[in-house]
Amino acid sequence: MTVQKIDSDPSWDAVAIAAASQFIPAAVSSGQPLTVYTKGDAVVGIEVTDPTTVLQNSVNTQVADLQTQITNLQTQLSSMQASATTGGAPAKKK
């Protein structure tokens, strides 16, 4: 389920919120993804999420996870490089 906050969306005025209940799906299968629209703590609308949005959200999550992994690896590499250079070079023989 996706929650979409509409607090700052001017198109969700009192009239739109009052009419929203007429457009809530009458039946939804248990596996269908839903988008729930909220204003404050109140649910003002529900719709079946289209497959493209579901896929886009999934890809965005995967990309964010991969970016976190890349950042962690870059941090580890920088740390290893820094300790290798500050660990001191072997003393030169005379």
Q: Can you tell me about this structure?
A:
The protein is an alpha+beta fold and 94 residues long. It folds into two domains: 1-49, no CATH class; 50-83. The chain has helices spanning 14-20, 51-86; strands spanning 2-5, 34-39, 42-48. It has a three-stranded mixed β-sheet. Strand 1, helix 1 and strand 2 form a beta-alpha-beta unit.
Compact description:
It is built from 2 helices and 3 strands, in the order E-H-E-E-H.
List keywords for this structure.
94 residues; alpha+beta; 3-stranded mixed β-sheet; elongated
Helix and strand topology:
Elements: E1 2-5, H1 14-20, E2 34-39, E3 42-48, H2 51-86
Parallel strand pairs: 1-2
Antiparallel strand pairs: 2-3
